[in-house]
Design a protein that fits this description.
The chain is of the alpha/beta class. The chain is built from nine helices and twelve strands. The chain has an eight-stranded mixed β-sheet with strand order 5-2-1-6-7-11-10-12, with helices on both faces. Strands 3-4 form a two-stranded antiparallel sheet. A two-stranded parallel ribbon has the order 8-9. The chain is globular. It starts with a helix and ends in a 5-residue tail after the last strand.
């Protein structure tokens, strides 16, 4: 039995012992047990922060063990399958290309925002290709989410303009100057746009989306498995549960 399976089995056993707005409406919670899996794409680029992408990936990958609905998670790059080098030198082979039409949730991590000359968010904004691609993904049934300075990629795409959102505390002023309606919350849910604060907030972003899409029991089971309790305030638009 591998580590993940053992953790899931342990958490499931423990859970058994202890048991006794128009934009917002566009991404209404889906009932557990939907015929097709919940499909999650985590967007990767050179300079991406390691914890920004691994925390949501871990949460969503484990979520299917606590829900009636299957969950499929993949890393994707705009450039197609390739090796990405993250902010602290981790090299990760990404096996999937850009296919937002095949996703229910898009997760955009951040990274490299403090180093404007290096790979990372600033480099992607200057290059322009990723913001243009993000600007084009909006469609009914797709929730676009981002954490940390990945929210600034959405801002460069025009996605956050006039919308409630948040980001890493050091980038909040930039986000607000660029037209985002800044909310003082760890996670901000505006229906088909969900944003979160810096770095470790990726855990809270993913747990909130699991709760919204797969139900509270799945989120509680994940918290127990991870030995992590969701932190901070979730600001949710009217009509979002």
């Amino acid at each position: 039995m591998d580590r993940r399976t053992l953790l899931h089995a342990t958490a499931l056993g423990a859970a058994t012992l202890t048991a006794a707005a128009p934009r917002a409406q566009a991404a209404a919670p889906r009932a557990p047990g939907r015929a097709h899996p919940l499909r999650v794409h985590v967007v990767m680029f050179d300079g991406v922060e390691e914890l920004d992408y691994t925390a949501p990936y871990e949460v969503f990958s484990a979520a299917g063990h606590f829900a009636d609905r299957e969950v499929e998670v993949r890393y994707v790059t705009l450039d197609g399958p390739r090796t990405v080098e993250a902010a602290f030198g981790t090299r990760l082979r990404v096996g999937h290309g850009w296919a937002p039409e095949e996703a229910d949730l898009l997760v955009v991590p951040g990274g490299g925002y403090a180093r404007r000359e290096d790979p990372g968010v600033w480099a992607e904004i200057r290059r322009g290709a990723l913001p243009r691609a993000l600007a084009a993904v909006t469609r009914p049934g797709l929730t676009v989410s981002a954490l940390c300075t990945g929210v600034l990629l959405l801002s460069a795409a025009g996605v956050t303009s006039g919308r409630p959102c948040t980001t890493h505390h050091r980038a909040r002023a930039d986000l607000e100057r660029q037209g985002g309606v800044l909310k003082s919350a760890r996670v901000v849910d505006d229906g088909d746009l969900v944003t979160a604060g810096g770095v470790t907030s990726g855990l809270d972003l993913a747990l909130w989306l699991v709760r919204r899409e797969l139900g509270a029991d799945a989120a509680v089971g994940l918290e127990e498995m991870l030995e992590y309790e969701a932190r901070g305030t979730v600001w949710a638009a009217r009509g979002v549960r």
